[in-house]
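Lecture 7 notes: from sequence to structure.

We start with a single chain of 205 residues. Read the sequence below before looking at the structure.
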Amino acid sequence: MSTTSPIVTLHTVDPQTLLDTYAVVLDAAVDVVAGITPDQATDRTPCDDFDVAALVGHTKGAVRRGFDLASGVDAFAGPLDDSLWPDAPWSDQVRAEAEAALAAWQVADFDATYHVPWATYTGREALTTYTIEVAAHTWDLAVATAQPFEFDPDAGDLLLALAPAIVPGGAFRGVADGMPFAEVQTAPEGSGPYTRLAAWLGRSV
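Now the structure, written as tokens:
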């Protein structure tokens, strides 16, 4: 008799699994940022609005906003802060924010609701949203700076499975209309989960 693994959804995924995945993604972000050289700061990235330096700042800001959400702070009450500190290596800055964010989510209430300007989330949805954002921008930075862009495959497979519930194929699409995502793209045959995730989020891969 054959058996199949149960399908993991946002309603059934274990919060500890999400926390473990978040930790993996944060580590990958720190490693990729550490691999960026000063001469790459102004290079283009798959995110048209950001060069490498700006995208590092935006990624750091996304991690901070995840911390704020877990901590009950309204990160969207004022202008978003994607600045980089002038006196510390970029990887140290991302690492500091990552450690704080992971610690905050480890004690967060996954049964609570979390409010952002575009949605009200469960704890699972909120953490998955920010894990996907950091994973996507880590992929962007790795591609832009010619670094390996496939990370832990189990974490990538989980995010790929959960992504359609966070960013549906027909929602938040249309960059020309001010939406954050382009239409879903097709990843090349044999692509890893992070490249397929990038394609789902509208990146040209």
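The helical segments are 15-34, 52-71, 90-106, 123-144, 153-166, 193-200. Keep this in mind for problem set 3.
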